[in-house]
What does this fold into?
Amino acid sequence: MKIAATHPALPGHFPGHPVVPGVVLLDAVTAALPAHAGGAVRVTGFPTVKFLAPLLPEREFEISLVARRPGQAAFEILAGDARLASGTVAYEAA
It folds into this structure.
């Protein structure tokens, strides 16, 4: 997947040198979660999150989710060989 250069969050983050905001990346994790969890879910939090490297608009990336325990998954956001972010997401059935 990728975040389009026309995404509305990019002009202010940062003018002239756009970087995809962390909240947009977390929204992508939220969007990927139902396929991992096997149905509709409601995110209840992100207990841990580390942003390790910036993501530029139009750069391809992928999200990896691994179950940790019921209602919690570990995630990684990867672009090529680079790990951009990692953490855990908590959720419940919707």
User: Anything to note?
Assistant: The helical segments are 22-37. The first strand starts at residue 41 and ends at 51.
